[in-house]
């Protein structure tokens, strides 16, 4: 049972003593004091299904017994060495982690957050290539450090600092749903939903977006040279955006031929999340030069990493690179346990099976509710885009999305929200989710949609379709 300070006291402390820009979800924010696997518990003992996993972070389950055991065992032996002395865990962990990568991606640097990992990748790319300019997509999120804030392309997450955009270019987002070309058939998805495009044998939207990228090289970049291009394998914060088939493979080749490195940001898509593969980039059939990872790597423990080739890693030889906590004995013990659990509990396979089951259920829901404009994703990385006009794909406005989202919470399911307009329900639950949990989520979502639609005027035509 909960034994902490009262709800009112917590709200007051938050208001007076915590940074005012701390993000709080929901009109009546939740106090969560305990978690077990895919479940969270509030101070009044209510149980919630965690469909957001602490923003994709809780990969194997809250307080997974095996991870807890590894953490407690290591914590009674040694917490910290600052890596100025060698300890066995970081070595054991490095070996296990790089074994998960194809090609020559065999050198790892441990840090503590996704922003730090992407900072490091930017530094590596610039030092290795001798070039300055770095490309990322409009709508991308790569972090909030002063360096990565520039890569990130949502104004919500950017401060107007001098130099934030220095050497950074945001290229057209190859988004087949909200972008100007494409449809659901452009994407690599186990379930096709109703918004099909006109492409026949191959993806014309992919071609059109690729031409835009080529033009950036031809017309925007001095001498056409870049240090790197960053891409998430499925854009997370941007609204679970899946790029057209073949686009990233061609983009990576183009970047390489112009002297740059390709960086796969696997902060959301790594560690089996997308089901078919362990890494999201594998679905796009290309080999990045640098891979950054965080969140799911530590199941909630602060841990992140940059993996690259030994040749690229050697580019930082000019100075020392120091990180007090990166790859600490505690972090490494947790990271190892997470890898074990993903394997032992068959979580990558589970992500594929349960995620596909969810996509099918959502596609059915989409047939019933025009307010669901798009359903997309892979494995347990799924987005449900809510619209007020499904032909024009007009994003449902915030008050309406918030109403639906809050009802889901009141009925016991916590979704996230993403996309430029915050109108995409984000589903990134712990990978131990079951089909029963999906049935429950679908029931809750359809109940919340009906409740919302019934509040709207009768003239509003995006109601439930007659069945
Ligand atoms: N990259 C991606 C794709 C992310 O989603 C995030 C966090 N939402 C980051 C990087 C930054 O990670 P962190 O918050 O750990 O700095």
Automatic annotation (TrEMBL):
Superkingdom of the source species: Eukaryota
EC number: 2.6.1.18, 2.6.1.40, 2.6.1.44
Compartments it resides in: Mitochondrion
Protein's gene: Dana\GF23448
Family: Belongs to the class-III pyridoxal-phosphate-dependent aminotransferase family.
Cofactor needs: pyridoxal 5'-phosphate
Primary location recorded for the protein, binned into one broad class: mitochondrion
Catalytic activity, reaction form: 2-oxohexanoate + N(omega),N(omega)-dimethyl-L-arginine = L-2-aminohexanoate + 5-(3,3-dimethylguanidino)-2-oxopentanoate; N(omega)-methyl-L-arginine + pyruvate = 5-(3-methylguanidino)-2-oxopentanoate + L-alanine; L-ornithine + pyruvate = 5-amino-2-oxopentanoate + L-alanine; N(omega),N(omega)-dimethyl-L-arginine + pyruvate = 5-(3,3-dimethylguanidino)-2-oxopentanoate + L-alanine
Source organism phylogeny: Eukaryota, Metazoa, Ecdysozoa, Arthropoda, Hexapoda
Classification via Gene3D superfamilies: Aspartate Aminotransferase, domain 1, Type I PLP-dependent aspartate aminotransferase-like (Major domain)
EC class name: transferase
Subunit: Homotetramer.
Name under which the protein is recorded: Alanine--glyoxylate aminotransferase 2, mitochondrial
Molecular function as annotated in GO: (R)-3-amino-2-methylpropionate-pyruvate transaminase activity; alanine-glyoxylate transaminase activity; beta-alanine:pyruvate transaminase activity; pyridoxal phosphate binding
Record-linked InterPro entries: Aminotrans_3, Aminotrans_3_PPA_site, PyrdxlP-dep_Trfase, PyrdxlP-dep_Trfase_major, PyrdxlP-dep_Trfase_small
Keywords for the protein's UniProt record, in alphabetical order: Aminotransferase, Mitochondrion, Pyridoxal phosphate, Transferase, Transit peptide
């Amino acid at each position: 049972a909960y034994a902490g300070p009262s709800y009112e006291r917590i709200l007051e402390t938050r208001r007076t003593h915590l940074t005012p820009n701390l993000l709080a979800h929901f009109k009546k924010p939740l106090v969560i004091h305990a978690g077990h696997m895919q479940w969270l518990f509030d101070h009044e003992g209510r149980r919630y299904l965690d469909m957001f996993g602490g923003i994709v972070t809780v990969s194997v389950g809250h307080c997974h017994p095996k991870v807890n055991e590894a953490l407690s065992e290591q914590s009674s032996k040694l917490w910290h060495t600052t890596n100025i002395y060698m300890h066995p865990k970081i070595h054991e962990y490095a070996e296990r982690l790089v074994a998960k990568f194809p090609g020559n991606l065999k050198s790892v640097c441990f840090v503590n957050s996704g922003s730090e990992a992407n900072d490091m990748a930017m530094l590596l790319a610039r030092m290795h290539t001798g070039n300055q300019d770095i490309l990322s997509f409009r709508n991308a999120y790569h972090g909030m450090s002063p360096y990565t804030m520039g890569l990130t392309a949502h104004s919500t997450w950017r401060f107007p600092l001098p130099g934030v955009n220095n050497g950074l270019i945001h290229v057209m987002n190859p988004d087949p749903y909200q972008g100007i070309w494409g449809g659901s058939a452009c994407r690599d998805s186990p379930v096709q939903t109703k918004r099909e495009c006109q492409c026949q044998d191959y993806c014309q939207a992919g071609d059109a977006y690729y031409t835009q990228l080529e033009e950036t090289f031809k017309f925007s970049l001095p001498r056409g040279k870049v240090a790197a291009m960053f891409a998430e394998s499925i854009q997370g914060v941007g609204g679970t955006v899946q790029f057209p088939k073949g686009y990233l493979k061609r983009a990576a080749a183009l970047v390489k031929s112009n002297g740059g490195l390709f960086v796969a940001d696997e902060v959301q898509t790594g560690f089996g999340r997308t089901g078919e593969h362990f890494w999201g980039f594998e679905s796009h059939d290309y080999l990045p030069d640098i891979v950054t990872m965080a969140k799911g790597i530590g199941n909630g423990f602060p841990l992140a990493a940059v993996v690259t080739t030994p040749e690229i890693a050697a580019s930082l030889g000019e100075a020392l690179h120091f990180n007090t906590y990166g790859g600490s004995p505690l972090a490494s013990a947790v990271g190892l346990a997470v890898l074990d659990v993903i394997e032992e509990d068959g979580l990558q396979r589970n992500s594929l099976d349960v995620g596909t089951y969810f996509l099918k259920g959502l596609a059915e829901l989409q047939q019933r509710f025009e307010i669901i404009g798009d359903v997309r994703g892979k494995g347990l990385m799924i987005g449900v885009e809510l619209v007020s006009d499904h032909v024009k794909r007009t994003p449902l406005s915030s008050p309406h999305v918030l109403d639906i989202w809050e009802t889901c919470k009141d009925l016991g399911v916590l979704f996230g929200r993403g996309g430029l307009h915050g109108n995409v329900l984000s589903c990134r639950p712990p990978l131990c989710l079951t089909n029963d949990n999906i049935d429950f989520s679908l029931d809750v979502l359809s109940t919340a949609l009906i409740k919302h639609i019934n509040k709207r005027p009768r003239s509003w035509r995006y109601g439930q379709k007659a069945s």
